[in-house]
TrEMBL record, chain A:
Membrane protein topology class: Multi-pass membrane protein
Native source organism of the sequence: Streptomyces fulvorobeus
A GO-annotated cellular component: plasma membrane
Parts of the chain that traverse the membrane: 12-32, 39-57, 63-85, 97-120, 149-166, 195-215, 246-266
Cell compartment(s), UniProt: Cell membrane
This protein's name: Branched-chain amino acid ABC transporter permease
Pfam families noted in UniProt: BPD_transp_2
Family: Belongs to the binding-protein-dependent transport system permease family. LivHM subfamily.
Membrane recorded as keyword: yes
GO MF, any single term: L-isoleucine transmembrane transporter activity
TrEMBL record, chain B:
Coiled-coil region list: none
Pfam families registered for this protein in UniProt: ABC_tran
SUPFAM superfamilies registered for this protein in UniProt: P-loop containing nucleoside triphosphate hydrolases
Protein name: ABC transporter ATP-binding protein
Residue intervals of the ABC transporter domain: 5-237
Domain of life: Bacteria
InterPro entries (UniProt xref): AAA+_ATPase (IPR003593), ABC_branched_ATPase_LivF/BraG (IPR030660), ABC_transporter-like_ATP-bd (IPR003439), ABC_transporter-like_CS (IPR017871), BCAA_Transport_ATP-bd_LivF (IPR052156), P-loop_NTPase (IPR027417)
Source species of the chain: Streptomyces fulvorobeus
Length: 309, 238
């Protein structure tokens, strides 16, 4: 087996997931300058929503047919929780000092984890997620598992849809206007409260899709899964330039590929023999973030915005 | 006949500091009314309250006889009140065309919107030439044109212009003032806030001089232009 194509494929699969989750961080930040640290848990809830639907389906149904229904279930659960969080946790703090909503987000993150742990049946341990049967595909010398194909197909489709929505529709233009200048957006007749809800909802829907991809790849989901995935996706959003949706996807892919290459090759770099392997991959991911912040603080695709400290 | 806009005893505060301390004035359809005064007189605060961005402490705002004080900002523009804010506030990372289309956000008559975009380009040819350019790359004067063009896109019954000449070169300032005269001639009702009292008064039907939150003097544009105290305080004569 050829190793480089395999590492790149692994990175791409991981990165596409990071990118999908990162959309939620970047859109919410772009509009209300809030880092929604509970977004990782929205991702996790999307996974449990999808699992719930799967468990309720008749057992004869093929997984291919079940996937759209699972996505729908995940999206509904994630969007509902995310919209409730916006309405009851963040909106009352809209004019509060920025530390207040940030702390709220961290608290919400813990509360959601605990809620799933306590109330979802048998969620104190990881729950197994349905898997595709069958051989892996071979593409350009890399083996791609059937379950991994999902994210490679769906992530680009989601991105194209979002790009068209933001640039071509009236609501999308309203969203861009709100992120650039909320007061003036109101003067145009834009209901900025509704735009904010929309940003939370889109981010949650994308996170739910990522959660289905995560379940199909790893074979299990758990109440803790949002923490490290959320942190990585946030890193991807910053890496790509927070506030920029294309940056989020690019940041995700760059981060995923970098992690994968570091895992595969770092141990072959002279003097770095101890730092290869999977155990170090998070270290390399965050080292990359620090490097980018030092060299290009606005992120890969970010613009230097002087008026936003 | 009732006035298009009627402001009665309006008071606005930022926290405990009262910026507008009970002002009353009205704007009749077809008129150009100007508020002049120095920095901090409360002119911008007044406009931001009229368009709903600030909530008043007290008083009444009637637009076509309808109270505005409890209507959120995004619904006020639908009633026919457009606000071109101080400092222009164009959307810098959107194109000129997209900025204009945002001015028509609440309209759904596609053909009419198209026509009005074209009208904005006729009014300001430079905007037409650069329609695909990001608005942030325009000069200050061009941004002012865009802000005015954008405000007109909602087909307002009342156009509020806040400091349209601020920070512009004399030539650009003249161009903006000429445009206001043109708009007035075509029947647009305008509430104009300006620090450039000379320019504002010479084209206004009615003027109000504001000082620290109060209207201290009211008269026709021509009257105020010849008023001795106004000449001393605002027109730099001694």
């Amino acid at each position: 087996m050829n190793e480089l194509p395999q590492q790149l494929a692994n990175g791409l699969i991981l990165g596409a997931m990071y990118g999908l989750i990162a959309i939620g961080y970047t859109m919410v930040y772009g509009i209300i300058q809030l880092i929604n640290f509970a977004h990782g848990e929205i991702f996790m809830i999307g996974g449990f929503g999808a699992l719930t639907v799967y468990l309720g389906l008749p057992s004869g149904l093929s997984l291919i047919a079940a996937i759209p229904l699972m996505i729908a279930g995940g999206v509904i659960a994630a969007v509902a929780i995310s919209m409730a969080a916006e309405r009851f946790a963040y909106r009352p703090l809209r004019t509060a000092p920025r530390l207040a909503p940030l702390i709220t987000a961290i608290g919400l993150s813990l509360a959601l984890q605990q809620a799933v742990w306590m109330w979802y049946p048998n969620a104190t341990k990881d729950r197994s997620f349905p898997q595709f049967e069958g051989e892996a595909f071979e593409v350009f010398g890399a083996n791609i598992q059937r379950g991994d194909l999902f994210v490679l197909v769906v992530a680009p489709l989601c991105m194209i849809a979002l790009g068209l929505f933001v640039s071509k529709t009236r609501a999308g233009r309203g969203m861009q206007a709100t992120s650039q200048d909320p007061d003036t957006a109101k003067l145009m007749g834009i209901n900025t409260d509704r735009i904010i809800v929309m940003a939370f909802a889109i981010g949650a829907a994308f996170a739910a899709v990522a959660a289905v991809a995560y379940g199909l790849k790893n074979g299990q989901i758990g109440f803790r899964m949002g923490f490290i995935m959320g942190l990585k996706a946030f890193t991807a959003a910053v890496l790509g330039g927070i506030g920029n949706i294309y940056g989020a996807m690019l940041g995700g892919v760059v981060l995923g590929v970098a992690e994968s290459l570091a895992t595969g090759y770092m141990s072959e770099v002279p003097g770095m023999e101890l730092f290869g392997g999977g155990a170090w991959k998070d270290v390399w991911a965050f080292a990359l973030l620090i490097l980018v912040l030092l060299i290009r603080p606005q992120g890969l695709l970010g613009e230097r915005v002087a008026d936003r400290a | 006949m009732t006035a298009l806009l009627e402001v009665e005893d309006l008071r606005v505060a930022y926290g405990k500091i009262e910026a507008v301390k009970g002002i009353s004035f009205s704007v009749e359809a077809g008129q150009v009314v100007t508020l002049i005064g120095t920095n901090g007189a409360g002119k911008t605060t007044t406009l931001r309250t009229l368009s709903g961005l600030l909530k008043p402490l007290g008083g009444r705002i009637l637009f076509e006889g309808k109270p505005l004080t409890n209507i959120p900002a995004h619904k006020i523009v639908a009633l026919g009140l457009a606000h071109s804010p101080e400092g222009r506030h164009i959307f810098p990372r959107l194109t000129i065309t997209e900025n204009l289309l945002l001015g028509a956000y609440l309209r759904s008559d596609k053909a009419g919107i198209e026509k009005d975009v074209q009208r904005a380009y006729d009014l300001f040819p430079i905007l037409g030439e650069r329609r695909k350019q990001a608005a942030g790359t325009l000069s200050g004067g061009e941004q002012q044109m865009l802000a005015m063009g954008r405000a007109l896109m909602s087909q307002p019954k009342l156009l509020m212009l806040d400091e349209p000449s601020m920070g512009l070169s004399p030539i650009m300032m003249q161009k903006i003032m000429e445009t206001i005269v043109e708009l007035k001639a075509s029947g647009t009702t305008i509430l104009l806030v300006e620090q450039n009292a000379q320019a504002a008064l010479s084209l206004a039907d009615q003027g109000h001089v504001m000082e620290v939150g109060k209207i201290v003097l009211t008269g026709t544009g021509a009257d105020l232009l010849h008023d001795e105290s106004v000449r001393k305080a605002y027109l730099g004569e001694d």
